[in-house]
Structures are given as C-alpha cells and as structure tokens.
Amino acid sequence: MRSFDRGLHMPRKSPFRIELSADESAELNRRAPELTVEIKALACELPATLGLPLSRLSVADVARHAQCSGLVARISHSTVWRWLYEDAIRPWQHRCWISPRDPHFQAKVGRILDLYERRWQRQAPRHDEFVISTDGKTSIQARLRIHPSLPTEPGKSMRVHEYARGGAWAYLAALDVHRAKVFGRCEATTGIAPFERLVDQVMSQAPYNTARRVFWVMDNGSSHRGEASVRRLTQAHSTLVPVHGPIHASWLNQIEIYFSIMQRKPCGDWQNSSTIIRMSASLAAASRMKTAATGPSHFAFLPRGASSKGAWSGSL
Questions:
Q1: Taking Cα atoms as reference points, which of 2, 95, 5 lies closest to residue 43?
Q2: Tens of pLDDT, residues 162-173
Q3: 173 in Cβ contact with 267 (< 8 Å)
Q4: Inter-residue contact 149 to 269 (CB < 8 Å)
Q5: For residues 267, 164, 145 and 273, what is the CA-based torsion angle, rounded to 10 degrees?
Q6: Contact partners, residue 17, CB within 8 Å, separation at least 6
Q7: What is the pLDDT of residue 74?
Q8: Torsion-angle region of residue 41: left (phi > 0), alpha (psi -120 to 50) or beta?
Q9: Are 298 and 309 in contact (CB under 8 A)?
Q10: Three-state DSSP state, 205
Q11: Residue 131 neighbours by CB distance under 10 Å
C-alpha cells in the first residue's frame, strides 16, 4: 500500500504517476472548482453505494471511479489526494462503532465512574471500602521461539523468530483501582468456578477480608453476569457489592488497560519458557513487577471536566 493510501503524504516520484497532456491539464484546471466538489462527494460515499465490492476507498479507487463514471477523462492520484487533503477526507480510514443498547446505559456508566472518583450514591466511601476491577483474558498462548531472539543493537531493533505453540492459559485478574494492586491467577479455562476462585483469592486476604464493602466492577461475561451471579457472590462474601457495566462497555473496566500491557509485554515472547507452568510463573512475576512499578493515574473515560485516579501509568 502506498503512503497516500494511508493518508500520510504523496511521494515525489511514483511509478504509478499519471502524466496528463496539455489539453487534459487545461480541461482539468477549467473544471477544477466543480470537479473538486464532485470528487470530494464521491470520496464520502460508501463503496457499496457506488456498486464497488470494497470495504473502503483508497485514493486510487476514487480516481478510478471518477474516470469510469465519466466525471473526468483522466485524473492523477496526486490531484485527488490534494483535493481530499484540503478537507481532511480520508475514506481509507475507518473506526469501529457500537451504539449503546442498554436502556440503563447512562446510569450504569455513571455509577462506575463515580466509584473511580471515590463516590457511591452521592457519598464518599469510607477508608475501609475498596473498588476492584476484574475480568478474564482467554487463551494466552505460550509461544516457544524456534530460535533465540536477538537483542537490540545500535541501528537494529530486537529480532524475534517464528514460534511453536506450547499450550495456553486463561488469565483472570483483579485490580484494586485506588491502591494500584493486581491479583491474578492462571486457569485451564474461564467460567464460573475459576472466577469464584479469583474472588476467594482476593477476598480472603487483608484488607478486603475485614472491609466494610468491596465493590467489584465487572462486565457481562458468562462467568459473572445476571442475578444468579449476584446471588452466588454475595452469599459467599457478604461485603462484596457486584457492579455490572452496560452491555458492550468493556472500555469502562480498568482491568482492560492492565490486560493490554500484559499482552504487549510479558505475553509477547516465551522463548525461555519450555513448559506452560513456567509461563504461569512469568505472568505472576510480571503482575508483581507492574504493581511495584506504578500507581494510580488519570483515567480518560470521564465526563467533561471530571478527573479520576485509576488506570495505569509508567512502564513495565
């Protein structure tokens, strides 16, 4: 893919450059104001509307369709790119979007953000009340590098090689939002029983075993959703308060920030782990390292003007 397809810049020289004749250039300049509007309108159409079997349009696609539809006899990619650039039109880019479907979306979001701000039902929690963010990450692969990875050198990045699969763990974790402390465990699979073992692991140790209330922020995964899950958790731990987020709102759950760090760093290369047991130990060590290295910081998903202490900062 050429650089102008990514919306960066036009190369000065390109083997795909179209050279226009003097007559074609004169005609293009004469029709430029009108044609510019038509090209921009074309770029703002969905490919399906134009009858194209594409998911998105590139500069080349826009230029080609303009020619095939009779808008212009010939036009260069650089001209199309320049016109689109004027209004920051980039049909080759896209964003995934999920519309809220939960009828109580705003209320559920609000109470989670309040907990991150140390509020619950318009009151500040006491010193012996805590907020836990929890979830599970399925199928973390143990990648066994066939050849040793080569370290960074001046002018060279670290090089990693192909790998063989050495099994997989499900990784369940809980994050104390305001104390920046992580609890994690590896299980053969996710489910109700593994999740409840994580809850027992956290709730059985100080300060949670003597806390007045411990709020557990969680999504609607199959291992901890619905009223049945609320009954199981509260019967096992009377001080536990389950707080479910809206459907399709995992971005509210701060444990996902921690999972993204674990995926990019300790979970990226298992060249020295000959067994899946060592992978479990490495995950535990990385969790301890993360807890020791960082503290609570600003959480971005907040109403305008609000601030919060949570999420992760620093490096692993």
A1: 5
A2: 877 777 788 899
A3: no
A4: yes
A5: 60
A6: 76, 77, 78
A7: 86
A8: alpha
A9: yes
A10: coil
A11: 24
